[in-house]
């Protein structure tokens, strides 16, 4: 009896190793979300089933892939003024290089007609010169791409009704103006404004159009900005944490009432900030 039992035990031990070794490695998958993107949108690229590292470019611009739940994720900003057509996405992983074509589709934005005091629409030579200088100053911020400082998902800096959406084509006193590159949130004078993620303050200034303004650098080319503040509570170069109060709602600059204008840039692209806080990045 003992000899028979020993033989059966050996058979069982030898059977299980054979079944475990039959498991095949999972195929690497590249997932684009959403499947359809237009000017002003954000495209999330997820590379699954690879140990990394993962690198890539979109239309020649560097992408930053970060580890997230057994995958690597990168964010692509589609600028509001991007021409609708196909663009090339290149990804490298495990010594392999793949190329995909991503179509940016046309996107219709609403039209808004505003009536403002003439002096707010037709600038004096002095104010026009000031506005041009300030535009050059802020434009110099976006090409800089620093190390990652953000962590986890982005939060809403100020809850409230969206009174002016991103991308709205505006006519002021029947004069066509640039589209709205942020969102306007209804709020009361003095309401707190929170940092949507960790980062460093890269600009604090009183600007002609946007009044008391703050720009945060979250790293990897992601910036958020907050305009028309009644008060700024941070200084340039200061490090801030997600959820920290950075300023108070106001109506400074070219504004007709208290509200928060906030916007976002991703690798220089002007994108809808509401799309940023919808994404699951961790």
The number of distinct structural domains comes to: 2
In the CATH scheme, the class of the largest domain would be Mainly Beta
Coarse morphology: globular
Name the quaternary structure.
single chain
Could you give the count of β-strands?
A: 22
**Averaged pLDDT:** 88
**Helix residue percentage:** 10-25%
CATH superfamily of the largest domain, please? Glucose Permease (Domain IIA)
Tell me what you see in this structure:
The protein is α+β, with helices and mostly antiparallel strands. It has 2 domains: 75 residues, Immunoglobulin-like (Sandwich); 168 residues, Glucose Permease (Domain IIA), CATH 2.70.70.10. It contains 4 helices and 22 strands. The strands form 5 sheets. Strands 10, 13, 15, 16, 17, 19, 21 and 22 form an 8-stranded antiparallel β-sheet that branches. A 4-stranded antiparallel β-sheet has the order 1-2-6-5, with no helix packed on it. A hairpin with an 8-residue loop joins strand 1 and strand 2. It is globular, with a radius of gyration of 25 Å.
Relevant terms:
globular, four-stranded antiparallel beta sheet, Glucose Permease (Domain IIA), disordered N terminus, 2 domains, 22 strands, Immunoglobulin-like, 282 residues, eight-stranded antiparallel beta sheet, alpha+beta
């Amino acid at each position: 009896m003992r000899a028979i039992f020993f033989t059966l035990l050996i058979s069982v031990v030898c059977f299980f190793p054979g079944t475990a070794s039959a498991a095949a490695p999972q195929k690497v998958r590249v997932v684009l979300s959403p499947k359809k993107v237009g000017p002003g949108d954000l495209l999330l690229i997820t590379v699954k089933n690879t140990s990394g590292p993962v690198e890539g470019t979109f239309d020649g611009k560097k992408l930053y892939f970060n580890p997230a739940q057994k995958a690597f994720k990168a964010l692509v900003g589609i600028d509001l003024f991007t021409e609708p057509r196909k663009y090339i996405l290149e990804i490298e992983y495990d010594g392999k290089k793949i190329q995909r074509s991503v179509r940016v589709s046309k996107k219709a934005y609403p039209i808004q007609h505003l009536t403002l005091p003439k002096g707010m629409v037709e600038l004096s030579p002095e104010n026009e010169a000031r506005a041009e200088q300030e535009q050059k100053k802020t434009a110099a911020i976006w090409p800089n791409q620093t190390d990652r400082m953000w962590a986890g998902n982005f939060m809403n800096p100020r809850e409230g009704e969206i009174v002016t959406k991103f991308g709205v084509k505006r006519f002021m006193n029947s004069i066509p103006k640039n589209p709205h590159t942020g969102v306007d949130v209804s709020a009361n004078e003095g309401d707190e404004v929170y940092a949507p993620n960790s980062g460093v303050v890269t600009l604090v200034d009183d600007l002609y159009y946007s009044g008391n303004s703050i720009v945060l650098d979250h790293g990897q080319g992601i910036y958020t900005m907050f305009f028309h503040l009644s008060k700024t509570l941070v200084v340039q170069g200061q490090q801030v944490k997600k959820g920290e109060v950075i300023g108070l709602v106001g109506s400074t600059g070219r504004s007709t009432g208290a509200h928060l204008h906030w916007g976002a840039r991703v690798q220089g692209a002007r994108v809808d900030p509401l799309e940023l806080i919808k994404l699951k990045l961790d």
